[in-house]
Design goal:
The complex is a heterodimer. Chain A is α/β, with parallel strands linked by helices. Chain A is about 50% helix and about 20% strand. In chain A, α4 (about 85-95) links the parallel β4 (about 80) and β5 (about 100-105). The two termini of chain A are about 15 Å apart. In chain B, α3 runs parallel beside α5 (about 115-125) and α14 (about 340-350) packs across α15. The model of chain B is unreliable at about 130-155, about 355-365 and about 465-470 (pLDDT under 50). The chains are: A alpha/beta, B alpha+beta. The interface of A and B includes residues 14 and 105 of A.
Chain lengths: ~120, ~550
Amino acid sequence: MSRTVLIVDDAIFMRTMIADILEHAGFEIAGEASSGVEAVEKYKQFKPDLVTMDIVMPDMGGIDAVREIMKVDPNARILMVSAMGQQALVVEAIQAGARDFVVKPFQPSRVVEAVQRVLG
Amino acid sequence: MKPQEKYAELFAAEAREHLAEIGRALVALEEQPAERGALDAVFRSVHTIKGMAAAMGYEAVTRLSHSIESVLDELRAGHRQVDRSVIDLLLQALDLLEQSVEATVKGSEPPDAAVMVEGLVQWQLLGEMAPAAPAVAEEAARVRAHRAETFVRRADANRVRVDIRRLDTLMNLIGELTIVRSRLHALADELGSEPLHDSVEQASRLIAEMQVNVVESRMAPVWQIFDRFPRLVRETARTLDKEVELEISGRDLELDRSMLDAISDPLVHLLRNAVDHGIETPAERKKAGKPRAGRIEVSARRERSRVVIVVSDDGRGVDREEVTARARREGLLDEDAEPTSQELFRIMARPGFSTSPRITTLSGRGVGLNVVEDTVRGLGGSVELQSEKGVGCTVRLELPLTLAIIRALIVKVAGQIYALPATFIRESFELLESAVEQTHGQEWISWRGERVALTRLQVLLGGAGGNGKGAGGPEGWPLNLVALEFGGTRLAVSVDDFVGEEEIVIKPFDLPVGAVPVFSGATVRPDGRPALVLDVGSLC
């Protein structure tokens, strides 16, 4: 059975791109969320194997969303998707429980690698 | 569509939304510098554009948005305070970013941003390091943060973007279906088959429901264009050394997407005019006993099946007497006639009318007004202007909710079938020929206690045939009349027969050379024959 992924990003553009990359690599997209609040809700709803998480979003940013999801499921596997110049935030996210990160712009192969790494 | 093209389209659409959001939030930020919500909104949108551009490999856009983001970082960290100069800088950067996005999307060379990037870096390096906002401002910011939530544009994950052309096609197909449905109806009646009739009824209901759904899916909120206005007004006002407060209401009202696109430019014209020619300078306003800052209101609301958009200002208004006098001199108006608000607008909208040095307070009012009127009329709507000298000016646009399918009264004139859009019809009724009065070569009737001009469509449309009813027959003959109203003007037209009320699909068409320009489109009848749709605006 293919692994399921929840994609969190406030830009439809980014969600589409990540979904395409992961679907192509054989993952199943469990759902998409456009804000931290929605991400937590959808996490509870879909219990995905993995979450890709944007950092800057309206209605609860990515780092707070990581914290909230970790409260719900301490074993949650979350991959941060950050932009250039957000090193400090990425560190904060990892401290909050995220497993790894990729930096935009990304190569599809890098995303797939990171996802596989996180899923172990 | 190749993935790259799909992404490029998504990028363009989403980046444009964010650019509009940035412009709006920047102006809000200037008005309320402590407004954390607005600053955060600007930051998020710039950041999102940067991320998307980076993913697309659009380097120029990425670099510029990165520099803008750095400036915003300083402001968010409280190292520097929001002031007019930084807002100016950011607005200029936004313009460049917009150009850069548009150029990149088209595949052309983006403008050189080196100077701007340098300017943004300079700002960060050179400005004085002001302390963070004092406690008072912070308190105020906390209170306002609540309201700031409204700035946050929610991108809903349950939505998809659809090319408007697909919806156009869908709409056209439903239009065709409606025509087939009418034919089936006629056929079922003819055959007298009960089961067939029932099935057609059922199909009708489904088609109607489908139509409602497609119409609704084409709707877009007016904020998509309204959100550009604060910036437009601000900049026009600054160039002219005027002070203007803009109030926008009804920004969540939804309108057909293509209508929204079409009215964007006319509204920009109206706003520019209001700032440029309506609102006085602070000194003039003071002299007139008005508040220093002028006030412009833009509102959108629904009134029955119409959408009403009003642009009003509290500026110097229109000198009605002067316009009337001038219109009389130019022969645009009869000596004794008082123009209605609608006529006043049309007179002023005439290209070249306002360029006379005599009407200095109005100069330029005419620029673009004809564009406004043509566009709105073309959409099946109307424009009305109300103004009082010294008090202000209100322009009211009335638009139909949707373009493609309308209810219409089908009439017969001189053996031909025509459609009259139902939105403009007040009443259809019979009247005896003897009740028609005549003065100055114009025929009049009395309708609901009002004297209303009568136009005989039989004469206008040039058919000599018909059954004679309405064509000016003997005194005792009954006339079939329709009372119309368009933008405040009332008119009665005579027809030979009423065929019935139908939903028609309007197909735009080019008028043959020399034809009477009173048609707004054509439609196909259930029997497959075409009928012309009368343009009520040009009749009234």
